[in-house]
Amino acid sequence: MLATLGFLTVGALFVLIATGRVTPLVALVLVPLLASLIGGFGLETASFIVRGVQQIAPVAAMFVFAILYFGIISDAGTLDPAIDGILRAVGARPTRVVMGSALLALLIHLDGSGAVTFLVAIPAMLPLYDRLGIDRRVLACVTSMAAGVNFLPWTGPMVRASASLGVPVADLFRPLVPVQLVGLAFVFGVAYLLGRRAERGAKAVDADRLGARTLSEEERHVRRPGRFWINAALTLAIMGTMVTGAVDPAVMFMTGTALALVVNYPEPSIQRARIDAHARAAMLMSGILLAAGAFTGIMKETGMLAAMAESAVRVVPPAWGPRIPVVLATLSMPLSLVFDPDSFYLGVLPVVAKTAQAFGVEPIHVGQAALLGQMTTGFPISPLTPATFLVVGLTGVELGAHQRFTGPLLFGATLVMTVAALVLGVIPL
Fold first, then answer.
1. pLDDT digits (tens, 9 = 90+) for 212-231
2. Distances (CA, A) of 25 to 102, 160, 339, 383
3. What are the structural domain ranges in the chain?
4. Which sign, positive or negative, has the C-alpha torsion 48, 3, 362, 114?
């Protein structure tokens, strides 16, 4: 009974979110709530929700303040010297332009937003591609690859995996750092080869002003170039602490946001304006995470999750059980074309992790396997994410052409990282 109810709950969640009938927040709250009531748990459901929300709160807090922090330091112009330096350095050499595009996307994606990455990197680099006669699919490809492999602790897939499995973000992320470095080496290797190929048909142009960019009046108004070194040191301190795990990430970003506001915008009115400028993105995702807490709380406390896992264990061949992380890692990127991040990480992943646990596999390994492709390398070509349509809209490339050109390379990045994760012992074979 509980297993059937659980599978129906996950199925309903997927259908409602995938078809756009309701928002993820609504589905994550109402679907499990209704299932719990049908299961006869009555008012006890409220306590299930509270326990789930309490578990998720630190992750939600980290995400809110990470978005605010990176928004504030970007407003202050901390990334400007690096962005302008890249644009100046690439000149009119196609190989440099393509590799510079990947580096620029990687840098901008520090805030964890694929949409922001494409909105900044593609318009900045597109004039160079057009003037040099480089295929626009190359720009769509390398920016997608750089953003896709750059799965940081505050990115959506990472915080969702942490929330659904109850594993601290730092524990998920730290072992993946060398794997990610291997993935980034693959990205820049591909960018170099695409750039070399582009040189054969490139146009000869004057490079004097190719890298110039201009800021809007509003952007100039909030820039604080005199605070660059303070902001850079603060950012390095936060990210270094994140990697070591010495202090909870939520505390670091909370403190960092307060310091960034005081250092760059001492006036309370401007502080409020900068918070308002980034509050929508922060609150939207934090709301979904807290709703996910309600979902996971109900699924765990009612016993639906355990019952689903027990049911799944009966159909998984014993020899395949310990290899669930390897299979999941290999399929993780294509799964982005089928599952949106909420339905996968919050609905499917807990069931897979619980099933794998019955075969002696730790949930953390299942989460790390999923992060090698599911809505990381897979998100820039998935029709289930708005960022995909930003890529094709900004570059003017057809969706199908983008998927055919970029998809195999993104899948290649996942396979390379999967091999690296196996060799380094991050996920078990």
1. 567 788 888 999 999 999 99
2. 33, 13, 16, 20
3. 2-205+214-423
4. negative
